[in-house]
Specification:
rod-shaped, single chain
Length: about 45
């Protein structure tokens, strides 16, 4: 029974890690988009 619990914890940790990775990727891409839009606005005006 304890093996099953440890497997669950390991899977949960992996899931958390991937979730954090996705969040970081989303944050980086959104920041990049904001910078890109700011540069475009600066060049257009």
């Amino acid at each position: 029974m304890s093996e099953i619990i440890s497997d669950w914890e390991r899977a949960d940790e992996a899931h958390l890690a991937t979730y954090k990775g996705v969040m970081r990727l989303t944050l980086i891409s959104s920041i990049f988009l904001v910078i890109l839009l700011a540069l475009m606005g600066a060049f257009l005006t």
